[in-house]
């Protein structure tokens, strides 16, 4: 079969369309005929500095080495049709349309990919393959943050970075849970944030979000690296701050959170891996079919143009998600 292989460190041009071995599902896994995938931070972060003429951050290089990514097909989010099921799989059958997270968060950018049964779900019936493919990792990450923040009916929630791949879901999920949501994003994304449900929007390029006079029951910080102490001042008593998204943002929440917590306020972080321990995809499917979450896709690229797709998202800071059509 054909797949996009990460051949070495470097610019997106190191990604090559090559003949690779077709994966074989284990007893608890599913083989998927891939129809669409996406670009998440897991894929494009390693290319951000090289595109600008620099080297990938040491942390990313070490992570790639540890995961032995070099020489493998990458890609973590996938939608497609079940081709084969392991003998212990009962939740789906051959021919089902599904969306999923690939085993080891790798392998999606190919004709066929493998997912564990626990990381696969029937595709929302009202969504295209492209729309379904951009939900899994971002949706699970956002759902974990919303649950950690204990978002519920009547709460005031601030989502910082509400227009990105994870932020759009944090905003929509907060609305689905009954919160009043204030979205912080850049000027060009204000209308987009309103279109997916934001009650209030703050253009961080024109207004200091810390000086509006508003305070919040929950703050979900997806992007932007504001000092954690700033967020604490904006929390109401018993309020919760949750950091997700970029590596620096997440580390800040994990390491600094315990030291800043107190005074009736909790400062913490949520990760994809923590959120994925729960069964998230069936809930996301239900919300999508109810129209409570709708993927906002900036652009769809052919997998043959994956280098251009990565350059686009890095240079343009895409609104919502970039989808990949697996037309190989």
Describe this structure in words.
The protein has helices spanning 41-44, 48-51, 58-67, 129-133, 136-148, 167-176, 190-195, 228-233, 247-260, 272-275, 281-289, 306-316; strands at residues 2-6, 15-19, 29-38, 72-73, 77-85, 97-101, 112-116, 120-122, 156-160, 180-185, 200-203, 216-221, 235-243, 266-269, 297-302, 321-325. The protein has 12 helices and 16 strands. Helix 8 links the parallel strand 12 and strand 13 (235-243). The strands form 3 sheets. Strands 3, 5, 6, 7, 8, 15 and 16 form a 7-stranded mixed beta sheet that branches. Strands 11-10-9-12-13-14 form a 6-stranded parallel beta sheet, sandwiched between helices. Helix content is 29%, strand content 27%. Helix 5 packs across helix 6. By secondary structure, the protein is an alpha/beta fold.
Q: Which radius of gyration do the C-alpha atoms yield?
A: 19 Å
The run of helices and strands is EEEHHHEEEEEHHEHEHEEHEHEHHEHE
Uncertain segments are none
Helix-residue proportion: 25-40%
Arithmetic mean of pLDDT: 92
What is the terminal separation in angstroms?
9 Å
Tally the beta strands: 16
Net shape: globular
Helix-strand makeup class: alpha/beta
Strand content: 25-35%
Quickly count the helices. Answer: 12
Biggest sheet overview: 7 strands, mixed
Quick tags:
12 helices; 6-stranded parallel sheet; alpha/beta; about 30% helix; 16 strands; about 325 residues
